[in-house]
Amino acid sequence: LVFEIQGRALVGLKVNAPMSHYGEVYVLPLDTIDERKGTGIVTSVPSESPEDYLALMALQNKDAYRLKLGVHDTWVLPFSPISTVQVPNVDGTTTISAEVCKRYNILSIKEKDKLMRAKKEAYKESHYHGRITCGIFKDKLAAEAKTLARDHMVNRNEALVYAEPDGTVISRSGDECVVALTDQWYLAYGEEKWKNQVMEHVEASMNFFNDQVKNGIVESTNWLKEWACSRSFGLGTQLPFENRRGEVIDSLSDSTIYMAMYTIAHILQGENNLDGKQPSPGYSIQASDMTDDVWNFIFLGSQAPSDTRIPFSHLEKMRQEFLFWYPVDLRVSGKDLIQNHLVMSLYNHAAIWKDDRSKWPRSFFCNGHILIDKEKMSKSKGNFKSMKDAIEEYSSDATRVALADAGDTLDDPNFVTANIPSIITKLTSLIEFGEFYGAHKHDMRSGEKILCDTIFMNDIARTVKLAHGFYESMQFRAALHCVFYDFINLRENWRHLCGKRGMHSSLVQYYIEIQAIILSPIAPHVSEYLYQNFSLNPLHSVQSHAKWPEVDQPLKKYELIRVLLHDTMNEIRGQLRKNTKKKPVVNSAQVVCCSEYTQWQREALQVLKSIQTESGYIVKRGDPFPKALLTRLKQCASTSKMIQESLSFLAYMIEHELNCEIEFEAPIVNDHDILSSFLDEIRELTNLKTLKIVDKATVLSSDTHYKQASKSFISKPIILLFTS
């Protein structure tokens, strides 16, 4: 200890400011100094730091505040923030600190949360995108100039290197740590050639399933520099250098290519040998046998070592195991490891397999941290559940379904316990449906399939295609709804459309088999039971025997038929509900439908087709209408009087991808023929006493309902209700 001094005694002290616009400045008080961190003395940079900017403005603009703190006018009033870093999209007449304060509407240093976000944004923009505007490092990027300025001042004895933690360091035991800077080994992450190799792989060869993950990887790759990779105690691999002092490699640095170890762990350790003290039965390989030359042969394909006691057959076995499993096709991890573990994994794969990029990881998938009923798991809250607890309470499959439904983005997934009973009920209903089929399959309809069967087979094919895409892109919530909730609904819709004719026996069995296969990634046990007992391959395992179903390309025609039937029945039910209190009872209906395009529909299609041809772009589901569409519809004789109807019709065509190859002669579905063929089923399912399907073309102008009936068009029948 040299001497002690109170901080207030330093206020007003004139100090030298190396490389500053102002040669000398004064020590000033700052309310937000963290007295628990370092010396409590910091450099004020009001041009870059929103906090320092607001503190300086408060001292300059408030006489009473200066008087209260004992700050003289000459210490603050002559000094204005000088912008030394030009940031894109920030006017040269202001500073990044002033800009972000304005952006976040921050008026006081007491607005800590806003200030933290503003500071992070300002420093990020300055560091990565800013350029120095003056001095000996003018025009250099701020990230580069920072290191150059440090070295320049150190070499001139104007500064010394000082390091401290960003915040309080708490150990896993909950104790506050005292951090000391000691001699350290570093991994040179950020080295230009090494970093460029990683960035090329990230941009050209990897799948992250989510742009946020990719952006995080890119940002972290740009940010990560020298990484302290050793520590003096704890678990870990010893540093492989002769001049080490007992240091071990830290866990993050030591675990980034352990997936390669997985490929041969069964040969080195075998089963029930967690600590690795015993060699694997049948191989008897000792830890001391695993020399650098052995590892190089297994992982790099170098020449087999001649001085090893490991038989060549065992070496070759390990080499083949590695080649079979590598590269890492998919690494699933938490979002908190994007900025360290996953980026380091890419760096280290690039270093170890520098001559063979085929061994570098192919995809990373990241997710958030599980919540239970929108709350973090905590023993104090009583909502902590281990996987074992959840399985015992809910069953394995119900837990898996709830987890799949919890979400699979970077947002924290929410495990909703209130949903579990309905999940169990639906899983049970699948088993009961299979058992119902097993008991009644010989009583079901057989022989030639009818239209409702074709519609259902088309729905099955469509579901299989959609599910494959969802699973491939790791969208498990979407996959679950597709293969579980929606697929069950499609089956029930088919059952209803079958009516008195009943379900077709072989199609029920086909449905059960498909259901078992496409649901098996999420609910394997229920799927296994269904497949082994009711599929075309009884007693076989869905996990080991079944392949992903091969189905025909689904046809748009049958999807549109299902939509037509579904929408028509929903419209009838909706109108009946509105008339429940009428007397006499409304229990009869006419459905007026259109079997060909009207003149305004043809014109609307022609307008859309011409716009798509001119732009060379087919409007897709979810796209906004082209800007020219409304203008051109208003210019056409018939569509100008039917603007809303035209837009609704074109939205329907785009929604069902019927605008890809536009046909003007006849619609893909004849509404009158389809609705007529399902007349009895529609009547029964809507509880109507009588139902009549009428072609719009047969409605006379003298008919009482002509005006209303004339509003029907393709895909949009008009429902007329009557009393019996």
From TrEMBL:
EC code(s) of this entry: 6.1.1.4
Domain Aminoacyl-tRNA synthetase class Ia span(s) in chain numbering: 149-412
GO BP, one annotated term: leucyl-tRNA aminoacylation
Segments forming domain Methionyl/Valyl/Leucyl/Isoleucyl-tRNA synthetase anticodon-binding: 454-581
Alphabetized GO MF terms: aminoacyl-tRNA deacylase activity; ATP binding; leucine-tRNA ligase activity
InterPro entries named among the record's database cross-references: aa-tRNA-synth_Ia, Leu-tRNA-synth_Ia_arc/euk, M/V/L/I-tRNA-synth_anticd-bd, Rossmann-like_a/b/a_fold, tRNAsynth_Ia_anticodon-bd, Val/Leu/Ile-tRNA-synth_edit
Keyword annotations from UniProtKB, A to Z: Aminoacyl-tRNA synthetase, ATP-binding, Ligase, Nucleotide-binding, Protein biosynthesis
Family membership noted in the UniProt record: Belongs to the class-I aminoacyl-tRNA synthetase family.
Protein name: leucine--tRNA ligase
Organism: Paramoeba aestuarina
